[in-house]
Amino acid sequence: MTTSTHGTAVSFDGAELAFEAIGSGPPLVVVPGGPRDSRYLEDLGGLAESRTLIRYDARGTGSTAAPDNPAKYAYPSLARDVDALRSHLGAETIDVLGHSSGAVVAAVYAGHHPDRVSRLVLVVPGPDFFGGGGDIASLLNARADEPWFDEVRTAAGELAAAGPQDPPEVVLDLLDRYVPAAYGGWGERQRAHAATQREQFSLEAWKHFHGNGDRTEPERFLPTFGQVTAPVLVVTGAADALTGVEAGNAATALFPAATHVSIARAGHYPWVDNAAEFSSVVETFLARGR
């Protein structure tokens, strides 16, 4: 039986980050994407059987309060929060896993503190930050025989046309319509997981994730990734029509010691679509050399 305990870690500005320690074994700090309540990560496909997942809620999501300044929703600030978990654990170095937009946070943290990261896992990194993304349309079109395809293709066109002038609520509606393409299949398991998206999502955190006019472009941070000497594993879903597989190749090329594995029959949430392969790939990487 998987056990869990709840706690808080105090960050650089006194903010309290709510976390749940799930499972047993060496700790793995898990950076959520979204921005979304970290419960969507579940136990990462059974990874908690061999790891203690330190699964925390980012600012303004789940049980963690919103920041006193919207600028602290931006990923450079969120990267500083990762160190609060390391400090709370009393560890000199930590293993870190970031999912989706959480991969940005995890990578920026590793680039700024390469001496504090022992292993880094980036799950389904996105093209907006890491590059790539040219395969998304073909991955979507490969699913043309799915009953949801026409609706999703229409939503994709509207998403591509969306801009800063569109209210976040409108964009979230489009993401809800597009969501079947984010999974490797669209069965009962995937539909149940997708149904939690809207209630767990933080529009305010999402709106400010890429900065508040403070010019937090990727170009400021990508060069620091070359300083990360820790082994890096990049994981993509072979059927992920949300961020694609090419972004995984682009992310891999930014680190000196990175490997890219694409999980078969999986999308943007590979622990939902193919839990056994996902957890095996990640655990094998984390255990190597111990």
Task: Tell me about this structure.
The relative contact order is 0.16. Strand 5 (94-99), helix 2 and strand 6 form a beta-alpha-beta unit. By secondary structure, this protein is of the alpha/beta class. Helix 5 runs antiparallel to helix 6. The protein is globular and about 50 Å long. It has helices at residues 75-89, 101-112, 127-130, 136-141, 149-161, 168-178, 188-194, 197-200, 203-208, 246-252, 270-273, 275-287; strands spanning 4-10, 16-23, 27-31, 52-56, 94-99, 117-123, 232-237, 258-263.
Summarize the structure.
This protein is α/β, with parallel strands linked by helices. It contains twelve helices and eight strands.
Order of helices and strands: EEEEHEHEHHHHHHHEHEHH
In whole angstroms, how far apart are the ends?
25 Å
Alpha plus pi helix count: 12
Rounded average pLDDT: 94
Radius of gyration over alpha carbons?
18 Å
- What class, by secondary structure content? alpha/beta
With strands numbered from the N-terminus, the spatial order across the biggest sheet is: 1-2-4-3-5-6-7-8
Strand content: 15-25%
Quaternary structure state of the chains depicted = single chain
What proportion of the residues is helical, as a percent range? 25-40%
Q: Per the principal axes of the C-alpha atoms, what is the gross shape?
A: globular
Low-confidence stretches: none
The count of DSSP E runs of length 2 or more, i.e. the number of strands, is 8
